[in-house]
Amino acid sequence: EAIRGIMRDKGLVEIWRLIHPQANDFTFRSGSHGTKSQIDFFLIPQSMLEQVSSCDMGVRALMDNAPVDLVIHWGDSHTARGRWCMNVSLLNNLAIREKLAAAIRDYLELNTGLVTSFSTLWEAGKAFLRGKCIEISARKKREDQDAIRVLESEIVTLEKACDELGESEALHLLTEAKFALNTHFSKALIKKQEAKRSIPCIRSKEENVLTELDKIQAEFQEFYSNLYTSESPMDMCRYDRFLGGLDLPSLTSPQKENLGKDVTDEEWQEAIASPASAGLE
């Protein structure tokens, strides 16, 4: 239960069981005691599922424990998945937006006219802006960590000083410090919850485990396409017979003409002068 709790908190997956959900193999088997268990396993982050090629149990040849083989492919898919992604929450901070805007202006002033093509200027600008964002993110992370340490130290100090300060004053200061600290933790929790909402793997209709992003998207597309596709062929005669038997209300020609007319001044004045209908405001 403790391991399951760690897996939930850290977003880890027991990869062998995920790949072999129906298998009944064990990594440890004792013939003398007649016991068997799975005490050897790999826990990996959900973000690494796409890179896993296979995970299998070996042969118990020399010991009672079977080796567990995990093969990870660090190919093009890993490179594409691991590309830097901008932390868009930085743009919610006005000071950071102004700093990035100033950096872009400085870059254009220094480099416009020094390169032969705008494409080169643009590509180099993206690399420059990426470095700026990484720098700002790292600095902001250090500042947040420093602020958390200061708040934790302040809370400990206030709790020790409760006897010296008045009870109401100490409680007020403690409440403020804990609220500020919980604000930092809430932001981290929200980010963690967003990561949990991602779908790292699914099982296809052929019972295969899919971890690659493009295959997951294709499987969802196929599922919903089949879900919303009618099983019976399109028969316009059946549609006409069904709709023809319904008494659907329709507008007369004079009603259509009235709907298309412009609203007159008298109608505006009458609507303004009429009292509002009773109801919840």
Automatic annotation (TrEMBL):
The keyword Coiled coil appears for this protein: yes
Keyword entries, A-Z: Coiled coil
Record-given protein name: Uncharacterized protein
Q: From which residue to which does any coiled coil extend?
A: 141-168
Stored InterPro entries: Endo/exonu/phosph_ase_sf
Sequence segments annotated as region (Disordered): 253-281
